[in-house]
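@channel anyone free to eyeball this complex?
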Amino acid sequence: MRSVTPKGSVQEAGTTVPSSEVVNAEPARFSKDWLTDRLLRNSMLIVMLLVITYFSYRSARFGTVDNLRTILIAAAPFALIALGQTLVILTGGIDLSVGSLIALAGMSSAWVAVHHPGQVWMTVGTALLAGLIVGSINGFLVAKVNVPPFIATLGMLTACSGMAYVIGGGAPINGLPKEFGNIANTAILGVQIPVLVMIVGILAFSVMMRRTSYGMRVYAVGGNRVAAEIAGVKASRTLFSVYAISGVLAGLSGVMLASRVISGAPTLGKGYELDAIAAVVIGGASLMGGRGTIWGTALGLFLIQTLNNGLDILTVPAYWQSVIKGVLIISAVAVDVWSTSRRRR
Amino acid sequence: MTADLPILECKGIVKGFGGAPVLKSVSLKLEIGTVTALVGENGAGKSTLLKIASGQLRPDAGEISVRGEQLPFGDPRAAHRMGVAIVPQELASIPDMRVYENLFVGSELKSRAGLLDRRRMIKQAREMLDVFEVEIDPQAVMNRLPVGLRQIVEIVKNSSKGAKVLLLDEPTSAISEREIEGLYGVVRHLRNQGVAMVYTTHKMEEVRATADRVVVLRDGNLILDQSMKVTTDAAIVEAMIGRELEDLFPPRAAAQPEVVLSVEELHVTGTAAPVSLQVRRGEILGLAGLVGAGRTELLEAIFGTRTSDTGTVHVAGRAVRRESPAASISAGMALVPEDRKGAGGILSMSVLDNGSLPRLSSFTTGGWLNNRNRAKSVGQAMSSVHLRSRGLSQSMETLSGGNQQKVVLARWLTGHVDVMLLDEPTRGVDVGARSEIYKIITELAKQGMAVIMASSDMPEILGMSHRAYVMRAGALVGELDRAALDRADVQTTIFHLAAGLGDDVSSPTALTDTTKDGFS
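replying in thread with the prediction:
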């Protein structure tokens, strides 16, 4: 899963340069080394398949379309913040504020929904704006003031959580207009809007990271900031942008969540940032920056969500679910680290 | 101090990594009180041999004995007990701790109450350092010391624990000429005490200066093992690269009259005086000086990655905005920084991505990467420098040092470059790749680039430059034209200028006017 370069570029590149001298070719196709290499490279995908096979075998309810829909709708709010988190982690940073930013965005959009009923777009706009503002503050602190990302976003986590309570006067905002619930509970061609947003988001971000110069700059800044600057990349601008993007996505996630339950709760999204970070890391990204892919994050995200869902179906007690998830996260990353070092040797 | 018994003997050492053989049956004997230079190009197997001899790596075949006693493999601590110590290429010191703490870490002295006895450690540290006649304050923080002194602390640390065999892996790769003298002193001192040393290096002068014996490895084979008294430099170099080295430095083409880079009164932040210089089309300007003389800082300020207070930079007559690398790049400047791993390439990215970074906008339409276009153009640039890689998709970190340097250099060649700023272009690069890099630099100058090359490698400055400046404390303190560079005593002249040893030396065209306070 730790594929370093965007794959699209790799294949075209390999074939168009006949003149550079070839040394140390990859292991021959279908040889034993090649097979081991393939297996190790896709270790996370294999784990995912094993998990799915196991749950399908244990419960007939797991493998149904209805259940797939349940998994997807549960995954959507996580997916949005995990996408932003991937960008931030690729630059070697971390964004801890997204969980409570969900609460802040959810609360502000609920407040707008109550005070300006009928203005659905305004509620979404408010949530996005709240995300943009908080993300920009994070970005400013990290890129311009050089506050360590962990500290800057930890501070914003606390501040946003407080603001979420301030907006509701310490209580949830209930009695929202019906239209507010339509945002997340409408289905287009049988697919609910949050799921659509998630799918479009994953596709768009994946293309952005592989095929645009912006994506390459993010990888470059995370891989080696000094070297990127020497090559003309405006590193602080890039850093600022990833936090802003992460904020906007958290805002979107917040309004989706609030709309789904048709209420604004200051505890909304609490702890989501950790699941998002886990998804990114399971997906093979390095917390040091420079390595990771959107597909990896998507895979990590669905692994976590599938587990949640499957363990629920098997009626495993919630506390044990946490234990199992924790062990799985650690072992998944341990296998990945081990296989990467094995391949390097 | 000579004894017939070999203190360390390697017999038929074989080692491969992932199917690729690195050492093919290498045998070597070390005697007490001798210095053996282990030379060879990068990838010849030097470091691997040292790691096996110090117990860090397990060989596929062969054995190692210390005074007749077999060394268990894969057990560095056992090797340490038997008196074999290694000073690795990447320093293992702890930068935020003090010198004496570094010397005693792992074997701290304790008082009877079981607490650290700092006073006694400081005292003993001073004694240990005094033996080597080096002036290092035991209470200095390690990362405040120059790299050369840190290296010496590291050697002192290892040898003081009773090492009889000391393996030094490229001890001079990161230190300046003056510091090297200190290192030589330490090496000679240890030799007189009867320590057997192996010393790996790329540089001939060092072999001459320190070694009693030279061992050449090439592609995992031991090619040459001779006493320094009987061998010649040419024989060693030939053994290293397997062919006779045609003149290391290619002939220079004449520079053109047009001034391409003009730096006026550029005051680099934190230095005493502003700097002015001009470089003509096709000219290679050398920047000599000791480590810390401000060469890197000057190049970075010209390029814009470092702040400057006042001054102007013109490229081909047009003013370039200061402190903006992006503006410098679009004006036709390029910087190949000193530290490939720290600042040059992005190791986690592929050759293609590294190659497209500096001119990203020319490979994109509306933000979209044009992969065919950039693969073609980066591919051409890379093959023009004869990059040896598995293809453009290969990750930078799996390339050898010389090839990484080629990528960092060639990535600028996908577009027009008027001014090429090179900082230590061949540091840590083996002889073969070095001569290729020299050819590339000369070729670029011939095509009309103005080149500034900062280097600590004296032969490189002398062999490549049309003209050279000597820097000290951020200022240009002397200028040497080609005639001056060809004089026999030029090295002494440069050294005296660089060290600020007064003007009793004949300095043909010393630039007293570039420094406001002058140099006395």
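from a first look: Residues 258-332+416-513 of chain B form a domain with the Rossmann fold fold (CATH 3.40.50.300).
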